[in-house]
Amino acid sequence: MSGLAWFTWRQQRSIVVAGLAVVAGIALAGYIETHLTFHLLAASNTRALAAFLPAALGVFWGAPLLARPLENHTADLIWTQTVPRVRWFAAALVGLGVATIGVALAVRAILSAVLADRFDGHYTHDVVSVAAIGYACFAVALGVFAGAAIGRVEPAMVVTLLVYAVVRFAGGEVRWREPDWWHRDDLPWIELAAYGGLAAALIAGAFVVVARRGTGR
Fold first, then answer.
1. What is d(CA 26, CA 110) in angstroms, rounded to the nearest whole number?
2. First to last CA, the chain
């Protein structure tokens, strides 16, 4: 397993570096905001940027995970080695999952410190509540599935962005049309469970696609 772990690390180290850069950038923005005269406007801009983060993770992390090796045919080389394709995919997915959850938790902690005392829960829900972790996991899982099913990076990115936007818009419409939902203390956990369930279903689908590619069907 050490060889597989090293191979997976070599493939995904850029993801780790990018994740650290994202967290550092948002942390820096949060620090600067606390020292700006127009801190509310700056906080609003950072909140908008953070709200787009799950989609960015899905597009730039999730979609290329399988689409890139499939498109440039390095998957054929990887999967003809001694490591079974499903095992390789599982190892790659674990690394991506840890990075995704780590970034989501770090950004949530930073924004909680920066925004929580300045805005009410309605405004910060998407970036401060635990639901934000579900959004990130769903977006990345959507990207992984799109990459596995399409096998080309750019189309998978486009599909990921469009589907994520539609699903999130639909979820937002439900919340706005049912004002009583905003007063439920368990709403973030309900969303976390819902988006986490969707993410699990998409990952299961990606495993099926990867396994079927191995049978030539």
1. 8
2. 28
The stretches in the chain having pLDDT less than 70 are: 1-20, 23, 26-45, 75-83, 115-124, 173-184, 214-217
Tokens of 94: 């674990």
- Determine the number of helices (DSSP H) and then strands (DSSP E) in the chain: 10, 0
Count the Cβ atoms, other than its own, within 10 Å of residue 174: 11
Q: In whole angstroms, give the CA distance from residue 67 to residue 73.
A: 10
- Other CB atoms within a 10 A radius of the CB of residue 30 amount to 20
CA proximity to 195, closest of 215, 170, 161, 217: 170
For 34, other C-beta atoms within 10 Å of its C-beta total 11
pLDDT tens-digit readout, 88-132: 788 888 888 988 999 889 888 887 777 665 555 566 677 788 999
Handedness of CA 48, 53, 55, 56 (dihedral sign): positive
Residue type present at position 153: V
d(CA 148, CA 66): 5
